[in-house]
Amino acid sequence: MAIRDCQVVNANYERVLAVMDKFLGERYRNVCSCPRCMNDIVAIALNYLPPHYIVEGGIGKEYGSPWVMVESAVSEAIDRVVEYPNHSRMEAVRPSADARGSDPVPS
Fold this sequence. Notes:
Elements: E1 8-10, H1 11-26, H2 35-48, E2 53-55, H3 67-83, E3 93-94, E4 105-106
């Protein structure tokens, strides 16, 4: 059966990740970068957006919510996680000075 050869994904997931990476590198440099906070941002942003499921592999077509909606959802999600993190502020992790992709440095 062909169902096993395809994967159904929420098209907004990749958009949220792209916008989150961009915003955390440009606007929100002091946000905790622990896995819990990063996943909370993604989950909250996706909950703000309508789901847009597609069969992965669609070539040449734009899928997902408009970019402006995704940017708004990610911005609101970051603000919410900064204000109400799921750990104490003492456990927060700052991104290292060189790049977000490297190991975080505890504050």
